Give the backbone structure.
Amino acid sequence: MSSQAIWWMLAVTAVALLSCVSPAALSVQNFGEMDVDLDVESERAQFNSTCKCGKKFTRIVGGTETQVNAYPWQAALFHKDINSIVCGGSLITNQHILTAAHCFAPETPLTAENMVVHLRDHDLSNPSETNLVERYAKTIHIHKHYDRPTIQNDIAIIHLNKTVPISSRLLPVCLPSSAKLKYGNEEAIATGWGATSTGGDTTNTLQEVKVSVFSRKDCLNRTAFEPIRITRKMLCAAGLDGQGTCHGDSGGPLIYLDQEQNYDQIGITSFGHKGCGDKVLPAGFTRVNKYLRWIERHTTEGVYCSGFTFP
Ligand SMILES: *[C@@H]1O[C@H](CO)[C@@H](O)[C@H](O)[C@H]1NC(C)=O
Ligand SMILES: *[C@@H]1O[C@H](CO)[C@@H](O)[C@H](O)[C@H]1NC(C)=O
Ligand SMILES: *[C@@H]1O[C@H](CO)[C@@H](O)[C@H](O)[C@H]1NC(C)=O
């Protein structure tokens, strides 16, 4: 089964389940607001001042720019028994991958035991193309308030059992600023090996799709997401240039070029529509800057590259 099918299946079942939930029940679902950190002594993140996060890798081959490893933080989460990609993810420290919680939901075949994380991959059908880095999970932290019916807090962190060698081709993405409150009408990029057409298979080479982020109001106004509740801890975006957002795999990054010309991961691909390639219907993303303290608490053993700060 392609990762896209899983993404859609999740969205469809979410809609089906939600229609049985009363609006009163929905209004108390925003668990994240209660996620207050009382542990003032908690450890802070470690940074490596030698490396800079969020720098796209560029190389010219025969006069044209190659896309191989252009997004050096992109991860592919493989199920090793069926040898198939299930989700995307992103490198955030020298040993942690950020992804979506629903990648490990009961209906998804992926577990810490059967997963192999590919980094520096590009063409999935050609393992010799890049110096593929394979890693296994030590632990997976799934947000304890991840709620499947309402797709709240769809965020997880994979702690790899071995660090990765940081280089220009294998580099963490930056985390976004907590101060950036509005992304409405801004351009962002979703990357993944997702399907290129409705019902299509996953592609072999990493795809990127330019999207426009909607303000929450504009997103809510697109009735297509009823009755999934779009909260302040989500972002929604739709493709530009006639491209659909189905290109991005679940768990993969939504990135934004900040004022210092670094790529910040502002979203995690979370849910979408059954159809694909629709410019009008936006896809839903977990809003990363609402989870910065949660991410920091679960990555204290890792080393970040400099280029951003935690709140
Ligand atoms: C810090 O980053 C440099 C690359 O810029 C890398 O060679 C070095 O191993 C990194 N150190 C750690 C602890 O990750
Ligand atoms: C990491 O996990 C894999 C798969 O379980 C195992 O083969 C490997 O030896 C482990 N590596 C380390 C450094 O623990
Ligand atoms: C929703 O969108 C429609 C059509 O684009 C527009 O006419 C309407 O004013 C919008 N409503 C709100 C509340 O933004």
In short: DSSP finds four helices and 17 strands in the chain. The helical segments are 3-18, 23-26, 216-221, 292-297.
